[in-house]
Amino acid sequence: MTESTLAPPRTYAISAVGVARSFGDVQAVSDATLSVRPGTVTALIGPNGCGKTTLMLMLAGLLRPHAGTISVAGQDPTNDAAAVRDAIGWMPDQLGSWDNLTCLQTLTLMGRAYRLTSAHARERGIALLGMVHLSEFADRPTRVLSRGQKQRLSLARALMNDPQVLLLDEPANGLDPRSRVELRQLVRELAAEGRTVLVSSHVLSELDEMVDDAIFMSKGRTLGDEAASMVADAKLKYRVEALDDGILREALASLAVPFEEADAGVVLRIADTAQAARTLAALVSAGVEVHRFGPVGSALEQTYMAMNEERR
Amino acid sequence: MTITQEQRTRTSVHGNPWLPSLHGTGLVMRIELLRRRPSTKGYIAYGLTFLAIIGLGVLVAVLAGSDKTSIPLELVLVLVLGVGFLIGPSLSATSINGDSGEGVLAPLQMTRLTAGDLALGKLLASWAVSIAALVTTTPFLIYAYGRSGWTLTELLLVLAVILFLVLMATAIGLAWSAIAARAVASVSLAHLTSGALILGSLLLFAFTAPLVSEEVTVIHVQRDSENVTDEQWNDPDFDYEALPCVEVEVPYQIMHSDRTAWLLLINPAVVIAEVSPIVNPETFEKDGRAAPGIFALIHSEVSGARLGPEEPQVYDECAGYFGDEDAWQKRNMEKALMPPAPWLGLGLAAVLLVGSVVIVIRRLRVPYKTLRAGSRVA
After folding, report:
1. How many domains does chain A have?
2. What ipTM did this prediction achieve?
3. Which residues in chain B have their CB less than 8 angstroms from residue A115's CB?
4. Which of A62, A99, A124 sits opposite B368 (nearest CB)?
5. CB–CB of A85 and B376 under 8 A?
6. Are residues A27 and A130 located together in one domain of the fold?
7. Which of A223, A240, A262 delimits the end of a domain?
């Protein structure tokens, strides 16, 4: 593999080139290449068992890759693990907490493990508990938390060391709809503060509004440009439905607008909102009785589904 | 909400350090002890144990005579060793694979804590809990010490050795927990290792006895009475002394236990007997000591094994020599007063302790090269 000999460029907060890792004879990640710009939110998307968590573990410096190069916050987690750990906040997919300890104790002790002073670790713990809406549980043992609350505590724990890079593995799992919206806002805020976030999730409709970029993975490989172009294309799609689809098709043909047949109505490709408004006006003035006109839906979900189609 | 340089005692770190630090080890120990903090039921159980031990102490004090005896003290010390060998490894043997299964190990590995901090912190926390057993026995220990005839230095030395051996057993448990993926496996392996040291060494000593035994022949001199008839025996004038002297070869089984005595010396119970005071079976009263107790007996038997086979007794009927009548007495004194040999056992314990800690640190270092078979990172 010639790619793996190339050093990743320094301008990325996270970059990986040709990364591979196997467990025994199971090739968990066979060829992962990705780069994440600082201050952005990037999604890592793929079906169960495609190697997302393994890739995250390697980026976090918990697992040594068998091939390829990684750079996180300008350091190599394989050789300079301590520096990388200091710059990273990692939220694991497995929910674990110290049952007997209170939420605040948990965060304070984590802060101490990051060498914060006692007073500051406590202060930061209190602030983070407020941020994830767990203040009322500060002095209750973590065993009383529900799954979603543990998930939020885990996020607060990942933020204890004020990390520049956040790796969130399935952060929306088990969260109620309100908490999901809050998570989305929180992740955007973190990115706005200049942090880099890599987030893996199955809840694709949530990701659509949260992320700047997406990396698709399948069978241990990252899908590069083809997936990116599929996402870009999916973002253009508008679904149009009229009372009479025959008139709609004729009108589109006469306006010379290319369209795709769909189960109901047609699908158009529209570059921006201005073009959408113009197209709708043209259709209406051509006498088409349009009752539905809007984006097809989650671009990530469409790409994910299309990717799975190919797989079958 | 960002952290300023003043708030963080941050020094730039590079590479992948593994050495333990005082701060890190202390923090891990604190976390472990907080997690294992007993519940109300736990405190009640400890309280009951404490009361039972005080009751036992009072009972023994009332029933026992006024003579000095070291046996109660020896019983407490054996109890402390036994309980430590059960509790310490039980706790440590689930400490790493258990945490990993619960998903609370990796978040700590992601912090500034090093593999050495985690290894030593977990080891010392499990050890501290297991020596809490020592604290509950304190009232009985004080009473038993009062009539044991031991000096305080001797007691403290034996206690220190017991704590060291429990630390070793705890470290072995921790190493198994770093190696095995499942808690069931690591707990069994930890107890098997302790069992091998305590019982296995004795069994091995017993079973290797035939391998180091041999038959030697000794030559006795006796009157040749083989051809004397019954008639002659009944004849009052028969002169036995007139029979010629002949040499007779007699087969004799000896065991070269000196070759396998090291198996006894590595036994933790033997190690504490070997560091306990030597009691002279003849002058103990004058020396201000109690009569030889269990430890003195163990020391004496182990010394017997170290000394090896006794010189076969040869007798010469014609010269009127029927062996050294004081031999048994002399041998007993030699066994009882033989200089103690705790160093082999202590040395092995030190090697096992250091070896276990090295294994644990190597297995806790991230990024992982290999994982415990059948486990995930977490």
Report:
1. 2
2. 0.85
3. 8-10, 23, 112
4. A62
5. no
6. yes
7. A223
Interface contact flag, A115 B23, Cβ < 8 Å: yes
- What 3-state class would DSSP assign to B93? coil
Which of A195, A223, A251 is where one domain is finished? A223
**A112 plus A29 within the same structural domain:** yes
Report the candidate in A296, A310, A309, A227 with the shortest Cα–Cα distance to residue A262.
A296
pLDDT tens for A3-30 read 444 554 457 899 999 999 998 888 899 9
pLDDT of residue B271: 97
> Which range of residues forms the domain containing residue A291?
231-311
CATH code at A26? 3.40.50.300
Tell whether A87 and A181 lie within a shared domain. Answer: yes
List pLDDT tens digits, range A51-91: 899 999 999 999 999 999 999 988 888 888 888 888 999 99
pLDDT, tens digit, 9 for 90 and up, residues A159-180? 999 999 999 998 988 788 888 8
* Best of A95, A115, A154 to mutate (most B CBs within 10 Å, chain B): A115
Same-domain check for residues A150 and A94: yes
**Residue A194 shares a structural domain with residue A248:** no
Question: How many residues appear in chain A?
Answer: 312
Q: If you search the block for the tokens 């002095």, which residue do you land on?
A: A139
Q: Tell me what the mean pLDDT of segment A239-243 comes to.
A: 88
CB contact under 8 Å between A81 and B16, yes or no, is yes
Q: Chain B residue with minimal CA distance to A99?
A: B35
Question: Which CATH number does the domain housing residue A289 bear?
Answer: 3.30.70.870
Cβ burial B348-371 (10 Å sphere, 16+ → b, else e): bbeebbeebbebbbebbbbbbeee
Phi-psi region of A194 (alpha: psi -120 to 50; beta: other; left: phi over 0): left
**What is the predicted pLDDT for the residue at A10?**
52
Higher per-residue pLDDT: B350 or B148: B350
Check residue B276 and report its DSSP letter: S
Do A149 and A166 lie in one domain? The reply is yes
User: Does residue A166 share a domain with residue A92?
Assistant: yes
Q: Is residue B1 predicted with pLDDT exceeding 70?
A: no
**A237 band by pLDDT with thresholds 50, 70 and 90:** confident
Percent of chain B with pLDDT over 90: 49
* A130 and A114 together in one domain: yes
Rounded mean pLDDT of chain A?
87
